[in-house]
Specification:
Layout: H1 2-18, E1 28-33, E2 36-37, E3 41-43, E4 50-51, H2 53-65, E5 68-73, H3 79-84, E6 90-91, H4 99-102, E7 105-107, E8 112-121, E9 136-140, H5 144-149, E10 156-160, H6 163-171, E11 177-181, H7 182-191, E12 195-197, E13 203-207, E14 210-212, H8 216-232, H9 234-242
Parallel strand pairs: 1-5, 1-6, 9-10, 9-11
Antiparallel strand pairs: 2-3, 3-4, 6-14, 7-14, 8-11, 8-12, 8-13
Length: 246
Amino acid sequence: MKKKFAFLISLGMAVLAAAGCGGSSSETLVMATNAEFPPYEYYDDATQEIVGIDVEIAQAIADKLGRELKIEDMAFDSIVTAVSTGKADIGVAGMTIDADRLEFVDFSDPYTTAAQVIIVKEDSEIAGPDDLVGKSIGVQLGTTGDIFADDIEDAAVERFNKGFEAIQALSQDKIDAVIIDREPAKVFVSENEGLKILDEEYTLEDYAIAVKKGNTELLDEINEALQELKDSGKLQEIIDKYITAE
């Protein structure tokens, strides 16, 4: 309840701050994201442009709507606020549909199913979700992992602005485990020796696109575009470009 109350206060302050600020024009589609979540959204080392699954999906939707895509990188827990106040048209950031977010934004049809997993050090005694009781757990602020970690009995939850900061804390023995999406987890483990992903998934969830509450016109357009991308095979093609079958 404390976290939800704090979020409500934060949102209220943001609404006041945004008063008088206009949203995007009809020619642009502003996408709010957090480019710290590979392979869904991240900075390409060579070009320093934001790329990834969500970026290509949003670009394909923008193309179908005849609009120019503009990407705004921000903290993950600011995305719902940006969309609900009209500072962004859509939130696309590996975002799960949940009851708290639905109070402030609407969601499109799901475009992919993802899993939250647990990362630990290779010599850890933690073998599954039940072993997280009483442990210190790192999560990225505002993510699904953050939400679910609150339900773990006697756990000390450490919240980080970026996923890799939680990974660094784990590598430095400051926390016992990290809960994060499976695909970013693969990237983080491949880049940091001594870590592993547990076999048992923590949760399964659907990712969808956030739209300002009540904007049914844009929501319908996005759902129609998503369905066309699914039917044509383009959506799966985008996902397969970044995620290879194991």
